[in-house]
Amino acid sequence: MTDESADTLVAPPDPTRATRRRGARSRPGARRLLRAIAVAGAVILAITGRVVVGSAMELERGDEAMDRGDPEGARMHWRRAASWYASGNPYCARALDRLERMGEEAAEAGAIDEAVLAWRALRSAIVGARGLTTPHAGRLARADRRIATLMLQQERAPMDADKSDSELREAYARLLADPPGPGLAGALLALIGFAVWVGAAFRMSQRAFDDDDRFDRRAGLLHLGVVLLGLVLFATGLSIA
Questions:
Q1: Where are the domains of the chain?
Q2: 3-class DSSP state for residue 209?
Q3: Contact, 207 vs 216, CB < 8 A?
Q4: Which of 150, 90, 91, 143 is nearest to 120 (CA)?
Q5: Exposed e or buried b for every residue in 226-238, given b needs 16+ CB within 10 A?
Q6: Angle at the Cα of 225 (from 223 to 228), degrees rounded to 5?
Q7: Any idea which of 101-110, 157-166, 176-185 has the lowest mean pLDDT?
Q8: Quick one: pLDDT band at residue 135, thresholds 50, 70, 90?
Q9: Which residues have a Cβ under 8 Å from the Cβ of 230 and sit 6 or more positions away?
Q10: Beta strands in the chain (DSSP E)
Q11: How many Cβ atoms sit within 10 Å of the Cβ of residue 213?
Q12: Would you identify the CATH topology of the domain 50-180?
């Protein structure tokens, strides 16, 4: 009589099977990382796209206003286009070029007040786009010099009647050299709001999906609420900065 149990062989453990199981367990973490990178990329792309599109639209409106013979409207729209600053944004640089050319042409024509307004619009756009660094710092310094020089050709205030040109130029240069910065409270609120909504979006990409990429409604809505709160804080901070 044959003992069938004795003939049953126990297969040795397959090392590749354990490796496959470990790989399967690691995939959810990899997917979450890729999802987080995708969310961060989408946020950066959306912000950059909004800046570039806004700048292009304002530049076009300024060109149309200039074609209609409305230099005031052109100056306003070009200043807005230049204020939509993002690194590498070509429309911002083109708007600054137009404002600079407007200022130089007005000065050559003897329209000193118009020249000052154009240079001030250029300066305002650059100062308004400052952050940790000052974009177009060279243009800003040139604008300060041109404004100080052109203001000497304008009608003087009675209190400046006894001052020399060099004294007035130095006084104007001092006033222009230290433009007011954003309010500290508003800047901090904007930074906190930015950190909150970006952090919440990142956490949502990690926590609101299970290992099978199914959306967890409760966790997702909770994180989405925090994202919206961060956006509100960010917008409020910018408005009061």
A1: 50-180, 182-241
A2: strand
A3: yes
A4: 143
A5: bbeebbebbeebe
A6: 115
A7: 176-185
A8: confident
A9: 193, 194, 195, 196, 197, 198, 199, 200
A10: none
A11: 10
A12: 1.25.40
Q: Are 234 and 194 in contact, with CB atoms under 8 Å apart?
A: yes
Q: Tokens at residue 180, please? A: 């007011």
Write down the residue that tokens 């062989």 correspond to: 9
- The rounded radius of gyration (Å) of the Cα atoms in the chain is 30
Give the DSSP H or E segment for 179.
Answer: none
pTM of the model: 0.59
Give the tens place of pLDDT for each residue, 112-133: 999 999 999 999 898 877 765 6
Q: How far is it, in rounded angstroms, from Cα 95 to Cα 125?
A: 10
Closest alpha carbon to 122 in 65, 176, 181, 78: 78
The whole-angstrom separation of Cα 241 and Cα 187 is: 6
Distance CA(34)–CA(208), nearest Å, equals 14
Task: Quote the crossing angle between the two packed helices 71-83 and 90-108, to the nearest 10°.
Answer: 140
